[in-house]
Write a structure and sequence with these properties.
Its EC number is 6.3.5.1. The chain has 630 residues and is an alpha/beta fold. The protein has two domains: 298 residues, Carbon-nitrogen hydrolase (Nitrilase/N-carbamoyl-D-aminoacid amidohydrolase, 4-Layer Sandwich), CATH 3.60.110; 214 residues, 3-Layer(aba) Sandwich (Rossmann fold). The strands form five sheets. It has a seven-stranded mixed beta sheet with strand order 15-14-11-10-9-8-17. It has a six-stranded mixed beta sheet with strand order 5-4-3-2-1-16.
């Protein structure tokens, strides 16, 4: 047996905080060594923080990373531990995103990332250069390139994040060249429902290439990207370890690398494929001999037996229901995003929310409070200030709902009327118009803008983080006010569809029993900027609105294709009504792009959202002729 204890770390980094990031890695490495860990795996770009984006174009940003990597090597020199750490380097005018192999007080090698994503939220191809098959260079006297690393416990094949997502990645040739333990350093953002995809992919890669895979993911939030952390160990397709998410730390497991080699001998398909690769001239990846660098201590390791002590019976089922998993993942991700933005910017002292008594601001409050309970458990409400700013159209019902939930959460609550300011602003606007009359939509927008201005004034004076509360569905059709409810310092639920907002509130009402949630849900959703406003009456039923958004923005369907799809999805609705909803959605969607580009930074939880810099990149000025049916 060749027993190896692997530690999988999730580290919450801040971009550019090199020393603090390295200190976090050092702390976890020391704790791993104290638990007889053989190999410690740390996330992608863990020294610099991720994503650094165009900061990597600054030579100083790159130059500051290497001393921290050397400091890490020096301070772990006495530990019988091999560490794989993410770092950025500059090599002959090219920036490379590398996995650094560290042991015995030295950096033993650097393996650059080959697959650079430039889709969805990623822009790595803009800033980093590609590692290449067969690359064999040196950087500061350290081997840099396509290498394997031989230690006294086995052969390690480092790689970085996207390399595992490509079927044509480096894993195949490295496994055929003798790599046994593939170590993937990742900074993969949270995407709703994506955790199972990661697990399945890693199992598939481990099975296809007959290797043991150790996968570590970053945790935390930087600039609206949320990293859920967690990691996996999978041996030749068999699940070994799944680590906790949404928290910094590490988990360990022992594997027998002799099992990986034995399974290769049993798998004729793998052997034949390797023979074919060799005979067709496959370029063997060279191995760096690191056996003299460190002597690992594996004498105390025990054979990895199942916790329930059976190789044949299933372990107890601890899986969450689909409903719980969906809701808890979204809530954990958004509260992590809110909290990290609050802490890492170091600019704010508390949160501020304009609480309307409606669904969106309620969910935003509950997410901020979820973070506050973790950050200040003795008095979470002291981190939040809620304001209710009634106009002539505000109802007693929404005021009571807002006041009730604030009281239940222990959040300070102020009522500051905008009625007088509303009348003054209407008069001023009318004076500017002369004989023309104020439109009803202008009167609505005046109210929203007064509220936003007051929130900004409060924020400027007390260091408060003004949270924007709008949802993705209404934002997609411009059902929001520039200078009003579109404004804020951080948009918490801007990428959460309205149907999901309501689903989350139903779940939270069930699990918390808050009376304030029940009171909010008892009233139809509407902005209360005019008499008896109901959002679904002014727009369309929210399930149909969200379906339109998904089909058009996500699946890229034309209006005629959308009508066909919606007819199958909503057979109870007349086709003529569905057609009118499609036409209305498409018109409003494309007319509202100019609003999105003025919205604040938002938190990302999926592949589909409205952040023009991160996901859906649409021109503001465009013709609409192509949308008409042929």
């Amino acid at each position: 047996m060749r027993l190896v204890k692997i530690g999988i770390a999730s580290v919450n980094t801040t971009v550019g905080a090199f020393r603090q990031n390295t200190d976090r890695v050092l702390d976890l490495a020391r704790k791993m060594a104290a638990e007889d860990v053989t190999l410690g795996v740390f996330p992608e770009q863990v020294i610099a923080g991720y994503p650094a984006e165009d900061l990597v174009q600054w030579q100083g940003f790159i130059d500051h990373q290497w001393p921290e990597l050397e400091r890490f090597a020096k301070e772990t020199a006495a530990l019988p531990l091999v560490s794989i750490v993410g770092v950025g380097i500059a090599q002959q005018g090219v920036r490379l995103n590398c996995a650094a192999v560290v042991a015995g007080g030295r950096v033993l090698g650097l393996v650059p990332k080959e697959k650079l994503p430039t889709y969805n939220v990623f822009y790595e191809g803009r800033t980093f250069g590609h590692g290449q098959p067969g690359m064999a260079e040196t950087h500061r006297g350290v081997p840099l390139g396509d290498y394997l690393f031989q230690f006294d416990f086995g052969v390690v094949a480092p790689e970085v994040c996207e390399d595992i997502w490509s079927a044509d990645g480096p894993m195949r040739r490295r496994a055929y060249s003798g790599g046994e333990l593939v170590v993937n350093l990742s900074a993969s953002p949270f995407r709703l429902g994506f955790w199972d995809t990661r697990r399945e992919l890693i199992a598939t890669r481990a099975s296809d290439h007959q290797v043991t895979i150790a996968y570590s993911n970053a945790v935390g939030s930087n600039d609206g990207l949320i990293f859920d952390g967690g990691g996996f160990i999978n041996q030749n397709g068999r699940h070994v370890l799944e680590t906790p998410r949404f928290q910094q730390g590490y988990s360990t497991a022992v594997v027998d690398l002799d099992r990986t080699l034995r399974l290769r001998t049993e798998n004729t398909t793998w052997r034949v494929d390797r023979e074919s690769w060799v005979s067709s001239g496959g370029q063997k990846v060279p191995t760096v001999d690191c056996t003299a660098a460190v002597k690992t201590q594996r004498e105390k390791l025990s054979y990895p037996v199942p916790a329930h002590r059976s190789f044949f019976l299933p372990a107890p089922d601890t899986r969450r229901t689909a409903r719980v998993a969906l809701c808890e993942d979204i809530l954990d991700a958004l509260s992590l995003g809110v909290g990290d933005y609050f802490e890492k910017t170091r600019a704010f002292k508390l949160f501020g929310i304009a609480l309307s008594g409606g669904r969106d601001s309620l969910l935003t409050l509950l997410i901020a409070h979820r973070y506050a309970k973790r950050a200040r458990p003795e008095n979470p409400g002291s981190l939040i200030q809620a304001f209710y700013m009634p106009s002539p159209y505000s109802s007693q019902q929404t005021r009571d709902a807002a006041e009730t939930i604030a009281r239940e959460l222990g959040v300070p609550f102020q009522v500051v009327s905008i009625e007088e300011a509303f009348e003054r602003e209407k008069a001023a606007a009318q004076q500017m118009l002369g004989s023309a009359k104020l439109t009803p939509i202008t009167e609505q927008n005046i109210q929203a803008r007064i509220r936003a201005q007051r929130m900004w004034n409060w924020s400027n004076s007390c260091g408060g983080l003004f949270l924007q509360t709008g949802n993705m569905s209404e934002k997609s059709v411009g059902y929001t006010t520039i200078g009003g409810d579109l404004m804020g310092a951080l948009a918490v639920i801007a990428n959460v569809p309205k149907t999901v907002v309501m689903y989350l509130l139903d779940y939270l009402q069930e699990t918390t029993g808050y009376e304030g949630i029940r009171k909010v849900l008892a009233k139809p959703a509407g902005p209360e900027l005019a008499h008896d406003q109901v959002g679904e009456e002014e727009l369309m039923p929210f399930p149909i609105l969200d379906a339109c958004f998904y089909l058009h923005a996500g699946e890229k369907l034309t209006p005629s294709e959308m009508r066909t799809a919606l007819t199958a999805m909503f057979p109870e609705v007349e086709a003529a009504h569905l057609g009118s909803y499609v036409d209305r959605f498409v018109k409003l969607f494309h007319q509202s792009i100019y609003k999105w580009v003025q919205a604040p930074l938002s938190l990302h939880i999926g592949n589909l959202d409205l952040d023009r810099e991160r996901a859906l990149q649409l021109p503001v000025v465009t013709g609409s002729g192509w949308l008409r049916d042929a």
